[in-house]
Specification:
Radius of gyration of chain A: 16 Å
Structural class of chain A: alpha+beta
Order of helices and strands of chain A: HEEHEEHHH
Helix content of chain A: 40-55%
Oligomer: homodimer
Largest interface: A-B, 28 and 28 residues
Number of helices of chain A: 5
């Protein structure tokens, strides 16, 4: 990633507040120790008609990858933990609306790296579930840990 | 409006690119000379759950007004021509995705102030229609001028 000016960081903070999504998916996956993969994301969405400029914007970052969905929407995804950590620490001082989501994501990523047993993992899952309240989803999911 | 720093302007440019909408409505209105009111808008949308922070953000601007829609979405609308002109000139240097919309809006507002006859107004309507292409609406509307 290039070094960003405070102007660029403030722009990205505004863009994240307006258009971005911060969340963590718990993907059922039997090859993982507790039966779930913890997958954090920062995603931006944009109409494919804006592709050129959106790519320009994303290239400022260089932390994620672009894909075009079947419905024509472009998604720019930051999925690597280090990339997310770097991005969030850059924009956090300038963010106004999504401060809570950033705090929660940083907490989750920190706790994830410290998980030692099932109890730790359950506490982590609980934290991840609290994203639903911040992001206004009404779905509640019951999960069973393995083994 | 308060004086804004370049950091604040860059943030607002990012927010506009992510979440904002720039458009002009032609409202049928028989009390207007050519049968239509030309109504320009810059609008931001946000979930009502973010109300406090969204209000903080909008109060930086102080150029528009907030309303809560029936579906719970907050809308911050900048509708006065001078307020739109001021806002757009502030953020334009920092905008990446919506440069064309800003150019078009500035052109429309300039031409609107110069309308003298039906031909001028028809040219203005044509310009306004080109917003549809920028904003990806598929609707095409046929209008009849009065008188």
């Amino acid at each position: 990633m290039r070094k960003l000016s405070s102007i660029q960081k403030a722009y990205l903070a505004g863009f994240l507040d307006g258009d971005g999504s911060i969340y963590v998916r718990l993907k059922p996956n039997p090859t993982y120790k507790f039966g779930f993969q913890v997958a954090p994301y920062v995603i931006f969405f944009q109409s494919a008609k804006d592709e050129k400029n959106f790519q320009k914007l994303c290239s400022i970052l260089g932390l994620g990858y672009m894909r075009k969905r079947n419905d024509g929407i472009l998604e720019y995804t930051i999925g690597r933990a280090e990339a997310i950590a770097e991005f969030l620490s850059l924009v956090k001082p300038y963010v106004i609306l999504k401060k809570k989501q950033i705090d929660l994501m940083q907490k989750i990523m920190c706790m994830k790296s410290l998980v030692k047993n099932k109890k730790d993992f359950e506490a982590l899952m609980k934290l991840i579930d609290s994203f639903r309240e911040l992001n206004y989803s009404k779905k509640r999911i019951k999960r069973t840990l393995t083994p």
